[in-house]
Structure formats: structure tokens, C-alpha cells
Amino acid sequence: MTNATQNGKKVIPIAVVEPDEEMISLYAAHKKIYPRSVKGVFSNWRWIMVWVTQIIFYGLPWLEWGQRQAVLFDLSVRRFYIFGLVLYPQDFIYLTGMLIIAALSLFLFTAVAGRLWCGYACPQTVYTEIFLWIEKQVEGDRAARMRRDEGGLTADKLGRKAGKHFLWIVFSLWTGFTFVGYFVPIKDLGGLLLSMNLAAWEMFWVFFYGFATYGNAGFMREQVCLHMCPYARFQSAMFDKDTLIVTYDTERGEPRGARSKKADLSKLKLGACVDCSLCVQVCPTGIDIRNGLQYQCIGCGACADVCDTVMDKVGYPRGLVKYSTENAMENHWTQKQTLRHVFRPRILVYTSILLAIVLAIFVSLAMRTPFKVDVVRDRGVMARVVDAGKTENVYRLQIMNATEADQRYKISVNGLPNLLITSDVTFKVESTKAITVPVRVQAPFEAATPGSHVIHFEIESLDSPGKLIEKSTFMIPQ
User: What is the model's pTM?
Assistant: First the structure.
């Protein structure tokens, strides 16, 4: 570099040093969570729900009702069998009612006690618990798993990992097979599977649902709850200060710190929290409940269980972490006062609406006519004058037998003077079948003025109670 001159003087240039660029990531690196095993009241309830839900899920397709599967959603023939009930696509209103009941139940449970569904019965929680149990049986407890993951690749590590994933895959595929068994008769599905004759779509759904179970419960785990499930985001709209949530008693627990079991807290000026961090170690989403309510909390109560265990060991009263409400913590309410405020008007309204809808659906099912009829004028045959000066209209009646026994039906018609059916009036329909029958109806030409007139078809079951009246039109030509 040459030196420049200015006014006869040398000017030495100064090098400008650019500051080092710093890369700032907008995404936090994912840190694997190793939930610690815990025993306690809430853990027991969680495992009870695991057993109940999975016995129902895996066992229900194998139950029989008469000569068929008790619960089967047979899409190929568009029939849904639920024990003694046979539903058709026309019964879609009942599915709508079920969805409304599920939504209102979620609102009710959330308003009462937060994310009860997430913590105890959600499939993601249930299958994660099962996969963690398998992982513990194969790889050991939390400390052993962490040491093994931090160490190098050994034959023992490889064998345990392979064994764990093999059990996960077998369990996931069995789950996928059971899921498809709700839509295809499961015994037939099992026979096709053993003979390697599964259809393409059946095989796709077995592997798809199995893969979803394997991925969600084995790898994604808390990520599903934190980032994929929308419930975590809108739950705050259903919370208020009288909602039961997992709560840390800050007034009692702070300031936290380690101490001897025999230490005098009044001299140490410490709260009841010994800062053992076990509440963080047992949390399936890795949060610290001592930082207050967070959207990541699924309300499983694991931190309350482990904290009660620690309190028992150090000789302090239980309940440093417990189910309570914001108002109860602020006002130091007793358990009785807390529960009295939990059942507030909002809860009573939710409960009343929910019970009314449930009652309406059951009443509707009990009064449901066990057959369906559609009446359509045959557009291929116009109204015509036949012998004896009578006017004839032709109709097509689709009669659907919604029972699982053969039924006979009788058809009659009224609405005009001397209206008469000249075709067969009695028909037999096999169980869960539908037939379409032509019906010829005649009326004297002078029975009414030319034009369109309302008539009613009355269809009565001869083998079971039930009667339907369907409206149609009778045309009298000019």
C-alpha cells in the first residue's frame, strides 16, 4: 500500500476492520426430554385411563353381536353397526350430535379442571406413556438412558436400541391393524393378513396409522402437544380464576433452596421447596411448574406426585404442588371452599346444555323408526288416463330396512277421494337391505280439478312397530 500526500504531508491510511458477523437463530435447538418415572395418586389414575382406553380400543372390534362384529363402520356398504343399532348415511345427524357432545364435554372439563383430556385420556398421552414404559423396560431408567445416549456406540447400546424399536414397531402395526378393523371386519382382515392378501387401501391404512403411532409416540412426543395440537393455544379462552390447574404454592415454597432434613427453616429463612428439580425431571413437556401456569402444561399431575414424595421424605406437609385455582391460592381457601367455587354458573350452563343434547339423542334413537322410505314420482311415465276413465300416476318407493331381521311392509295412500293402489301393496325387505318398488296409483278423473294435488303414502311395518307417512303429488292432466 502506498502512502498518499496531503499539503506536503504523508497521510497514512487507517484500515477499517469490519465487526465479526454473528448468526442469530430464530429457532431454539430441540433438547430431548427424558421424563423420570413417578408413582402417586395422579400417576395411578393416568395408568388406569391407559388400561381402560386401550382395553376398549383393542378389544371392541373382537366383540360379536349376533352373527356380526359388534362395532363396525362398514364403508363398503355404507352401514354403521353399533351393537344393536344400524345406522345409514341418512343418520348423519347422530354423528353431528356426537361431535357436539364431544366439543361441549371438552369445554366443560377444561373449565372445571384444565387439560384433563390431555393429561389422562388423549391418545398422544396414552401412547407416549406406553412407549416410555417399553423404553424403560429395555433401556433402563432415566439415568441409564441418558448415560447410554451420551456415550459411544457399543454392542449393548445397539442391541437395546434395536430391541426397543422392534417392540415399538410391532405395537404400532398392531395398533394400525386394530384401527382398520373398525372399518373392515377384523376377523376377515386377520385372515387376509395371514395369507398376505391385504388389499392396497387396507395395507396403506394399517401402515399409515402404525407409522403415525410410531412417529408421534416414539419420537415427536411432547412436540405434538406443544406445536401440532391447537388445543394448547385456545385453552386459555376456557380458563378462568376458578379453574382447577396444577399450581405451585409460591408463598409457601419460596425462597427455595437445599437444606438438611433437620434444618430449622425459620433460621434459614427458606421456603418448603428444597429445589430438587424433580418436578422438572418428571414433566413430560419439560417445563418448570414453579414458574407459574404455562400453555405447555398438560395437567397430568406428575409434578404434584413427585413433590408429595419429596415432602414426605423431608417431613413437610403435602400440597406444595397441587390442583387448585388462582382464586383459592390468593384467598387461602380451604378445599371445600375451592370446590364450591369450581361449580359456578358457567359450569352449570355447560352441564345443562350437555345433558339436554345427550337426552335428546337418546330419545331420538329410542323413537327412531326402524325403516326409511323415499317416494319419487316416476318421471319416465307421465300422468295418464287409463281404463274406466281413471287417472294413473306411477311412483318409485325406496324402502330401506334398518333392522337385522327380514321385514314385511304394507303401503296405502290417501289424499284424494277413491284413491287406489293398483299394484302390489305388500313387500318383503331382507335385513339391512333396500329395495325400490314401482307403485301405480289411480283416482277417478272427477276426483279433483286438473293440476297438482298433495297425497300421502303410509308405509307400515307388519313385523315390528313403526309407521311412516311420506308426502308426494298426484297429477291430473287437463
Answer: 0.82
